[in-house]
């Protein structure tokens, strides 16, 4: 399928290196919501579309067992290699076909992954596996990022970044929608009725890749550095939507 661009070994390695991880503060917002809704112990959390596991590991200290799921064996291999927590396991499966019994999961999360799913089927599946009062959390970051580098004008860096996004727009996957916040909100409303990275594709992926190289060179020029490995501080804005399955489902 054309939108499954994340399953190869090379992509998985890059994903592990560059994927933006949710902050501890954001994870705590999810946990605070979950704590208010639950009526029993924190037994099982399932991180769907876990990729290389950056978000999965942040759930480990709060649940007896955490399972990360993904369709990509390469992504799960990357995740397994970097997960030292004994209560984390990984399973290969589609988001719409979760290998868990009805009413067995306390928390289902999807971190920067929901846009790749068959959304109605996934929401039905999340409803099925969640316990009564179990929670669903959808998290993602926006492209409203702010770059900074010592002795460099932040406005100039951000202008280069915005021009890069504009150049990539023709290669943007239709699965990402026009805007992530509205996109997720529309589908979450479907979930509420029964029960609350950047990837590109296109006909010319080489052109999209050249845009990325041009972007890197422009940033290096503005920053007056010679190494593409120079670190830039990036402030990322996240959004999240949280839902609870009713006691009487």
Automatic annotation (TrEMBL):
InterPro entries: Diverse_substrate_MTase, Methyltransf_11, SAM-dependent_MTases_sf. This is Methyltransferase type 11 domain-containing protein. SUPFAM superfamilies: S-adenosyl-L-methionine-dependent methyltransferases (SSF53335). Gene3D superfamilies: Vaccinia Virus protein VP39 (3.40.50.150). PANTHER family: METHYLTRANSF_11 DOMAIN-CONTAINING PROTEIN, NOVEL PROTEIN-RELATED. GO terms for molecular function: S-adenosylmethionine-dependent methyltransferase activity. Residues 46-137 form the Methyltransferase type domain.
